[in-house]
Specification:
mainly alpha
């Protein structure tokens, strides 16, 4: 992926991205049905605006080849998370991830399996 900064997403946009990361490809109607299953008033405009904003940010790709627009994520969950973690580290710890990881380990916030994974990564 080319170097780009992914801004932190508002909750509504992040909800759309979560669906796309989970399902891969969805139509606007499928997104609408999953985000607002019990809403009496249709939220078509809301979903369209969310998809337009995500598209403008380069986070969602629209495929129109099938006659209906199908949306898919342009960045992975891992790419987004990595960008957000780096941004947080820059704001809180002058770019160092060590204090953040240390705090998670010391506070027993990481399961043993994840600590083992970190250990393997560091040994490589």
């Amino acid at each position: 992926m080319p170097a780009m900064t992914i801004q932190s997403l508002p909750n509504a946009e992040l909800s759309v991205m979560e669906l796309l990361w989970k399902k891969g490809r969805l139509t606007a109607r499928q997104i609408l049905e999953q985000l607002y299953p019990d809403v009496a008033r249709p939220q078509h405009g809301t979903v369209q605006r969310l998809l337009q904003r995500l598209g403008a940010k380069g986070l969602v790709v629209r495929d129109r080849d099938l006659g209906v627009s199908i949306f898919s994520p342009a960045v992975s969950r891992e790419e987004y998370a990595s960008e957000q973690l780096e941004s947080l580290a820059n704001r809180l710890t002058q770019g160092s991830l060590v204090p953040m990881i240390t705090r998670l380990v010391e506070d027993n916030r990481l399961p043993l399996a994840e600590i083992d994974k970190l250990r393997r990564i560091l040994e490589e």
